[in-house]
Design brief:
26% strand; Heat Shock Protein 90; disordered N terminus; five-stranded antiparallel β-sheet; Beta-Lactamase; 11 helices
């Protein structure tokens, strides 16, 4: 919307703005919020009554770059467009938007700014998800081939060790054949774990909060009491239908990863929320449950964060890098999605599970 178009708006401009699906906010020349349409209220998760008359810094509390650009536009009278702008909402959530800023009037007689915001989180997430799923399909195909190539010689080694053990006259030497058999079995089990569970899902309705409470008890028993466990549940979350045992393992793997990152001190928050009309892969689900497992540890190395769910990838010297890979397999088998991101002093693992359409 350019400057000429704004000047030509009819007197009922507010009604027109309210009918738009695009989020629109208007700031006066003092950069106080003078108007916000319903689409923007939904985007920012606030009501007009809460924010009208508030200073720009209240709405864009952690977006200094954009705020500075708005002030420059007010001074210069030149419109601008910014892409992939990260905004921090009043409640602390983050969204990514494309932003177009248009002065209302000319530089000498500028009486405010009109800001159009188009949320692009969904588009970015779907692009990342498509890339991730493609990589996972290729990785799984490679692992299946690798598993076949490893298991065949392992079976031969194990069988040869058993035959050799029967022929040994000095029974003290069986210690060596036992080592060969034990290590062959260990590698076989490791390959099976890399491939994930082959067990069919035993689906039943259950509360995600029941799983989280069970996991909280396990974490409390396994780790020191200096790790504080916080619950932030959405009481309106409905039951989901799935394999509760497998999902318990998936959530436990993620929570245990967070607890290990804390090195015996910190906090883990279990947070659940409802998302509507949420797309996973190519399927748009009417309702999903989003579970965030948040820790205030040191975060994940940025070089690893895009690979953290791959088998054998780990940032821990003593780890084998299978827990998160197994969790991902289980969640995906339930039609869900698991993601990870660093956010300031927190690491957030998010698990999306469809409720059922």
């Amino acid at each position: 919307m350019d400057r000429l178009a704004i000047e030509m708006l009819p007197p009922n401009a507010q009604h027109i703005l309210e009918s738009l699906n695009t989020a629109v906010v208007i700031f006066d020349k003092a950069l106080r919020l003078s108007s916000i349409n319903p689409a923007a209220e939904m985007m920012f998760k606030i009501s007009a009554n809460q924010m009208l008359g508030e200073d720009l810094s209240r709405l864009l509390s952690d977006s200094e770059t954009l705020a500075a650009s708005l002030r420059n536009t007010l001074d210069s009278g030149h419109p601008f467009t910014a892409r992939n702008v990260l905004l921090t909402l009043v409640g602390g959530d983050h969204i990514t938007v494309d932003c177009t800023v248009t002065p209302l009037g000319y530089a000498r007689d500028n009486y405010g700014l009109l800001v159009e915001l188009t949320r692009i989180d969904r588009r970015l997430r779907m692009a990342r998800e498509e890339t991730m799923l493609g990589q996972q399909v290729a990785n799984r195909a490679m692992l299946r081939g690798l598993a076949h190539e490893i298991k065949n010689p392992l079976g031969g080694l194990r069988g040869a060790a058993q035959l050799l053990e029967r022929e040994l006259k000095d029974r003290s030497q069986t210690e060596y054949t036992r080592i060969i058999i034990h290590e062959a079995d260990r590698l076989h089990n490791l390959v099976d774990r890399m491939m994930g569970s082959n067990q069919p899902l035993k689906k039943e309705p259950f509360s995600i909060h029941r799983i989280l409470e069970h996991i909280a008890k396990l974490i409390a028993a396994e780790f020191p009491p200096t790790i504080n466990l916080i619950r932030d549940y959405d009481p309106s979350a409905p039951d989901i239908i799935g394999d509760s045992e497998q999902l318990t393992q998936a959530f436990l793997n993620v929570a245990r990863n967070s607890a290990q990152a804390l090195e015996d001190r910190g906090e883990i928050k279990f947070r659940t929320r409802i998302e509507r009309k949420f797309t996973i892969g190519k399927t748009c689900h009417r309702l999903i449950i989003r579970t965030d497992i948040i820790d205030n540890g040191p975060g994940i190395n940025e070089e690893l964060i895009d690979k953290i769910f791959y088998p054998m990838v780990t940032g821990k010297a003593e780890g084998v890098g299978l827990g998160l890979s197994i969790a991902q397999d289980i969640v995906q088998n339930h039609g869900g999605l698991i993601a990870c991101r660093n956010q300031k002093s927190h690491t957030i693992f998010t698990l999306y599970l469809p409720v059922g359409d």
